[in-house]
Amino acid sequence: MTAPTRALHLAQLNVAALSHPLDDPRTAPFVELLDPVNAAADAAPGFVWRLVEEGAADATALRPMGENVIVNLSVWETQDALWEFTYRSGHLEVMRRRREWFERHVEAHMVLWWVPAGHLPTVGEALERLADLRAHGPSPRAFTFASAHTAAEVAHHPQATHEVPSPAPPPADHTWTVPSATSIASVDPVVS
Prior knowledge:
Layout: E1 8-17, H1 28-43, E2 47-50, E3 69-76, H2 79-87, H3 91-96, E4 110-116, H4 123-136, H5 151-155
Antiparallel strand pairs: 1-3, 1-4, 2-3
């Protein structure tokens, strides 16, 4: 007799280095799209949760990777649900216009991983998964749409869904850095 498989949800993090501050007129069209795109995500089939700053409608003021880098962290019931929202909704228009507002990525900027249903990942956990992808490439612990692992595959790799222990907090003056060079664009351009 096999043990029942626990339910898993798909977590995603994407980061984007702003070309200009959010209050710059050149970034205004992106800012105007935030509320409608976030409302569409909240109403999308398979949506579970997204990170928002306390008392705000989004997470754009959270800057764990540096002052010019915004983060988007969410959880979805399935990979298909996230794919449908990302590539077959109004979100796609934002992605098509991303070069107007964001620097090109020189390394992985988006990561997916499976979490136990009900678990809400922390920013620290998400950043660790992105660091894992950058350092070791795709694996059941950290992958992309182009190198996806299904929930069933991950069920055979229990270490893939283990929560990451929180590292010691960085010094007060520490920021996560993301290069702002303008070369290689990533295969998985998810920016919301």
